[in-house]
Known about the structure:
Structural class: alpha+beta
Distance between the termini: 59 Å
Largest sheet: 4 strands, antiparallel
Strand content: 5-15%
Amino acid sequence: MSFRSLRPAFATALLCAATGCSLVPAYQRPAVHIPAEFKEAPAGWHAVAPADGQPRGEWWRAFNDPLLDGLEADATAHNQTVAAAVAAYDGERALLRESRANLWPDISASVGVSRSGGSGNAGTTTSAGKRANASISAAWTPDLFGGLRAAVAQNNASMLASRASLGNALLTIHAQLASDYLQLRGTDAQLMAYQRTITGYQRTLTITRNRYKVGVAAHMDVLQAETTLRNAQSQVTDMQRQRATLEHAIAVLSGRAPADLTLVAQQWNNRVPAVPSALPSDLLQRRPDVAAAERSVMAANAAIGVQRAALFPSLSVSASSGRSGQVLGDLASGGSALWSLGLTGAMTLLDWGARSARVDQARASYEQGAANYRQTVLSALQQTEDALVDLRSYADEADNLKASSQAADKVEQMTLNQYLAGTADYTAVVTAQNTALAARRSAIAAVVQQQQAAVALTQAIGGGWDDSVPTR
């Protein structure tokens, strides 16, 4: 390869070095279609911009449950998934500091003392000599073509992505804990309903037995009453198992061993907080996973500049100065002075396309990150639409099931009165009791589903993420 063929590359390198140009492509957020409004937004909901008025921070306080508030605070401080995300963020910050340090010279110093001696040809020992030396040196690689600055930009974007991933971990953990807690409290409400129902079944069994003893009721009625009671009691056992599983999950989410947490049953809080709407564009600002995806694209974009800079020559400067003497005291008052100054330039003339291949790899990584970002945005929109339709549907369902449960309770009481009066058989009583119990369970479950849909919507719109890092 002749020098003439290298002239264009050297000319480009000199121009870029002189002007301080950047080899990082101009960044633009990957294009993705964002609808003007949500498809499933209920009537009366409206878009809000900016999103500063949306619920942020401790969004779970809207459920007005102090115990839930305490568990969520414990999750922030002690959950190990969050702890791992904090450590990953700290590692990215350290990498950023390291890349920034590469922009500056490395300076080192050394001090040493040596002693030497030997033996002559006749086996006589020569006198030993002592020598002391001290030196200071510096080495620097000027960032002529922006490769180091591109690396700083890449690490900075990676650090921001890691911080957003931490926010996503917090949002996910808080949402999962709230969902499990609300389901546990709903299970408590169903257990209380079962206990009231079982008390009624026991009373009915007693009445049926008494009627059988006096010959008014058939023995089959007693067997049906016992079957209904036993089935309800078995359902209670299964629900207690489900509750224990939820309690174990809550303990781990809050950073405890399952044996260290006991949640005593309490009066059911069926509050469903109103969750405000948000523009789809606000998702790009509020959802931490969307922010993390975009910042990963920014890091991939900067990585292209890193690989482009590797196509150009590198220049390194080194300098050192030192003294050498018989003893350490000579270093300050005299002795031999030594110094050096060096300038080294290097450029790969032929690598068979390896470096250009790395540039292509960096571009491909950018395109991959852009596709992942678009998919994350689309998934965020889907999750929001799903949560909106769930919240609306469960609200209507809860109203209907509440009315159904109230009607079933009346039918149960009326049927029991007719049975006692001898105008209805016991099969009608069993049917009415089973229907009333199922209606009570469904009414409670619909409210719990409505509460969980509110949690899911809050998570979908990124509510509660304030881009802060938990203090450890």
